[in-house]
């Protein structure tokens, strides 16, 4: 494995770790804190780094380019992560007021965080399925499988909580 590929792979893997911990720690805590915010920004920085290094490698190596859908979904994921981290910062700053509007924004943000994480998984899974030599799946099946995996995760993560009335 080339040093650049190693850097890119480590950066993308760090993105998965930072973003997953940030989103699920925030969900569990029920509120956004500075640690979550730092994890979101770290995930964005790692994803941007990994994607940039992989793009440079693809352009200079003259090798087979990544599937267009992977590039498009990857770019959309970075844009969405940037919006998410920016909104997280705004919600965090406003949340320090503890008024009703800030609390409502934070509750909306919790669900949005999960959606952003799920959408980020699509290009991540496509990259794994297409890019790992042992798997090296064709583009269309990789896209279909990644969407199926994310849809299954969405079903479990986005369904409304069961409210059991206690007598």
Automatic annotation (TrEMBL):
Q: Which residues form a coiled coil?
A: none
UniProt entry tagged with the keyword DNA-binding: no
Q: Which UniProt keywords apply?
A: Membrane, Transmembrane, Transmembrane helix
Keyword Glycoprotein assigned: no
- Chain segments annotated as transmembrane: 6-25, 37-57, 69-93, 114-132, 138-158
**The protein, known as:** TIGR03987 family protein
What is the scientific name of the source organism?
Collinsella tanakaei YIT 12063
